Amino acid sequence: MHPEDDTILQLASTVAEALGDQVEVHVDLARAEFARDARALLANAAPLAVGLPLLLVGYLLANMGIATALGPWLGPWGFVLVGVVNFGIGALVARSAMTKLLSHHVFQPSVGQEVAKSAKSLVASLHAHGTEVHPAS
């Protein structure tokens, strides 16, 4: 074995250890972010779980009343009209909610993507110090 081989083995060991540390840090960070997001989601969802059934019953009764009141003029078409209006409003609200949800970055990049970024950064750092790195085949 040549002395250069020892140096290469030491560098490979250092790179592997640093990459392992990076993976461990990213996994720990992902766990902490997931726990934080889950707590926030549950805290915001509890009042919704209580109020939503009451809202739904009230909304259904109000729509039944509106459709029944339209009955003398529109007959059964009053129910169709109320249904179509509700469908349109529901679609707009759902679209707005999805846009808002996606804009809050609820879906974080995967840990794999973060590890790949760290590996590229590590390789760039090694290149900056004049160390040549070849991908394993």
Kindly describe this structure.
It contains 3 helices and no strands. 1% of the residues are buried. It starts with a helix and ends in a 9-residue tail after the last helix. The protein has one domain. The chain has 137 residues and is an all-alpha fold.
Name its key features.
85% helix, 137 residues, single chain, 3 helices, mainly alpha
Brief description of this entry?
The chain is 85% helix and 0% strand.
Order of helices and strands: HHH
Largest sheet: none
* Uncertain segments: none
Number of helices: 3
Number of domains: 1
What quaternary form is this?
single chain
Radius of gyration: 29 Å
* Beta-strand percentage range: under 5%
Helix and strand content put the structural class at mainly alpha
Total beta strands? 0
- Helical residue percent band: over 70%
Calculate the terminal CA-CA distance, rounded to whole Å: 22 Å
CA-based shape: rod-shaped
**Mean of residue pLDDT values:** 83
Write the layout of secondary structure elements.
Elements: H1 3-74, H2 77-103, H3 111-128
